[in-house]
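Milestone 3.1: sequence recovery, worked example.
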């Protein structure tokens, strides 16, 4: 299977048909092996883009497990404002970096904010949802060997990748 670089328009819906977002995505690489997709964000979408042609439209349905994962209640913490840097100013919708129960640093969304404590959630906002991507390919081309190599590159230790 050859690797391609795909740019596409996308309307994202949940399985009830509600529109969650509408975007244009540029330079997404396809044709990755299953082992290369392990741990990748949205592996089901990347697989669904394989052999796409310019101008082609596809509906790609992805289960929650193959999208952003199942919702994990262990990734929700109630934390005293006193234990958070800038805790007095933290409000709903903010992003906070702190340690989870397992000791790893994680990025949390503030979902509730009380006078003395806040509720933090490290789940992706779309975790637990089956998703439907309506795709229209704007541009498709074969990936160069350099682009394929770069897609397998491991980031330097300590570098934050979004």
């Amino acid at each position: 299977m050859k690797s391609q670089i795909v740019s596409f328009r996308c309307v994202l819906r949940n399985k009830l048909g509600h529109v969650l977002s509408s975007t244009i995505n540029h330079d997404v690489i396809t044709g990755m092996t299953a082992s290369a997709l392990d741990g990748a964000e949205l592996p089901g979408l990347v697989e669904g883009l394989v052999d796409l042609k310019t101008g082609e439209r596809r509906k790609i349905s992805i289960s929650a497990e193959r999208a952003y994962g199942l919702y994990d209640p262990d990734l929700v913490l109630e934390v005293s404002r006193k234990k958070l840097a800038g805790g007095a100013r933290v409000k709903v919708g903010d992003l906070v970096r702190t340690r989870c129960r397992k000791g790893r640093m994680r990025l949390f969304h503030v979902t509730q904010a009380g006078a003395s404590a806040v509720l933090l959630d490290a789940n992706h906002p779309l975790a637990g949802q089956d998703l439907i991507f309506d795709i229209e390919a704007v541009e498709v081309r074969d990936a160069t060997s350099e682009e394929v190599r770069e897609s397998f590159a491991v980031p330097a230790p300590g570098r934050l990748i979004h």
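Residues 92 and 111 are 5 Å apart (CA to CA). Helices lie at 34-37, 43-48, 145-151.
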